[in-house]
Design goal:
Order of helices and strands: EEHHEEEHEEHEHEEHEHEEEHHH
CATH class: Alpha Beta
Shape: globular
CATH topology: Rossmann fold
Oligomer: single chain
Number of domains: 1
Distance between the termini: 34 Å
Number of helices: 10
Structural class: alpha/beta
Length: 313
């Protein structure tokens, strides 16, 4: 177990960051630690931030063409490979996200997102080189948004090379591949989704879901064209395991959130898009950290209250 303090802008640490390097199953403490690592990947100087916040000696990598970035952090007990998510002001990142065509590559089962797989392929020589520093240590993969998608694809590549990661934690990751890809993916991966985050709904699972069950128009020719168009569009899926952070900061494994999300969409329509902004703000990595911290903070507060009551007695 590794215990590291975390600071924000020189402030007093909010909660201690505990990490369990030998734990491949889902662990809340590991999730919080790796959420911080995903946040560090956005820093202009991730190496310095990784050492200060996580106690990791880091090597940053960057592809100047695709703007794919991240870092490998190493300490005595473990290593973390973290990918940066989409930069809102970087055009190549947005182009990568938008290329939703499904393609087949020898590194993966089934078909995968062309934009994500291409970005990783162009950066792989740099990643493979720095991974030498992590030899013999438990390796954890992580990333937020597009970074989560790259982490999942990296997990596939490493397994094929005979050096699988201990676990992969993604935060607000979009869909990565088709149904066949997801069915053949059996690596220890935890796909964490915060509240109303809309990015995990992209790319759309299937265009068929956009077609109403009872269309208002009766023109069979137009309806058939729409159905054929939907059938030709890529059909994406999500890898397991799904971990959901609800509005109260409670964590649920494999939760059924579809009915709840439908209600949220209806509410967004009723408010003329005002509540749609919740899906944007819930996607921020800072809010993932806040959601994961919430349980820890409440638990520690509860312990403190108990101690105070004991003292009063």
């Amino acid at each position: 177990m590794v215990l590291i303090g975390t600071e924000r802008g020189g402030a007093i640490p909010l909660v201690p960051l505990t990490f369990h390097p030998s734990e491949s199953s889902f662990n809340r403490a590991n999730a919080l630690y790796l959420a911080h690592a995903s946040d560090v990947a956005y820093h202009r100087a991730p190496a310095a931030a990784a050492e200060e916040r996580l106690g990791l000696k880091a090597i940053a990598f960057r592809n100047k063409i695709t703007r794919t970035r991240g870092f490998l952090g190493v300490c005595d007990t473990h290593a973390v490979l973290a990918f940066r998510g989409t930069d809102p002001v970087t055009l190549p990142n947005w182009l990568t996200d938008m290329v939703v065509k499904l393609v087949q590559h020898g590194e993966y089962h089934g078909h995968v997102h062309h934009g994500f797989s291409s970005a990783l392929r162009r950066t792989w020589h740099k990643i493979e080189k720095i991974l030498e520093a992590a030899q013999g240590k438990p390796l954890f993969l992580t990333g937020h948004s597009m970074g989560g998608a790259l982490a999942v694809l990296t997990a596939c590549r490493l397994e094929k090379l005979g050096r699988p990661a201990t676990a992969t934690y993604t935060f607000g990751s979009p869909r990565v591949g088709d149904v066949a890809f997801c069915a053949g993916y059996a690596l220890p991966t935890y796909r964490i989704v915060n509240h109303l985050d809309i990015v995990p709904e992209m790319p759309l699972e299937s265009m068929k879901r956009l077609l109403p069950e009872k269309p208002r128009f009766t023109n069979g020719k137009i309806l058939n064209k729409l159905k054929k168009l939907a059938e030709r569009r890529p059909c994406y899926g999500h890898v397991n395991t799904f971990v959901y952070i609800d509005q109260d900061g409670e964590i649920m494994m494999d939760a059924d959130v579809e009915p709840w999300h439908k209600h949220a969409v209806a509410r967004a329509v009723a408010t003329r898009g005002k509540t749609f902004l919740e899906g944007i703000t819930d996607h921020l990595i800072s809010n993932y950290i806040r959601g994961l911290e919430g349980q820890v903070t409440r638990r520690q507060t509860g312990v403190r209250r108990t101690k105070n009551l004991d003292r009063s007695n």
